[in-house]
Structures are given as structure tokens and as C-alpha cells.
Amino acid sequence: MVRGKVQMKRIENASSRQVTFSKRRNGLLKKAYELSVLCDAEVALIIFSQKGRLYEFSSSK
After folding, report:
1. What's the gap between Cα 22 and its chain centre?
2. What total of structural domains would you count in the chain?
């Protein structure tokens, strides 16, 4: 079964937006790690939350 395409739009509810950010942030960090391992690539990722908190990932050899 194929999932339908989700329309991207801003989440208006602040608490729902924060929960979604946390879940997607972890998934994005995992994908960056996987890309660095599978492709033997150097990857850097910088994410700022709405409140200005910094989240970062960098692969090193």
C-alpha cells in the first residue's frame, strides 16, 4: 500500500509544531549519519529551532 503525498504547510499549533520538530530533527540527524556511512562522505548539518537552539551533526574521518 502506498502512502499519499502530504501537503507541506506550517503547523499553527505551537506544541504540535514543537513535537513534529523534535521527531523530524532526530530523523534528519539519522539520515545525515547514514549518508556519511553509506557514501563515505563528509556531512555537516546545522539546525536552529524556533527558539534559536542549535542542533548540529558532523561526520569525521
Report:
1. 8
2. 1
Q: What is the DSSP string of 1-61?
A: -PPPPPPP----SHHHHHHHHHHHHHHHHHHHHHHHHHTT---EEEEE-TT--EEEEE---
Question: For the purposes of burial, counting CB atoms within 10 Å of the CB of 8, is it exposed (0-12), middle (13-18) or buried (19 or more)?
Answer: exposed
Condensed to tens digits (0 to 9), the pLDDT of residues 30-60 reads: 999 999 999 999 999 999 999 999 999 999 8
By residue range, what is the domain housing residue 29?
A: 14-58
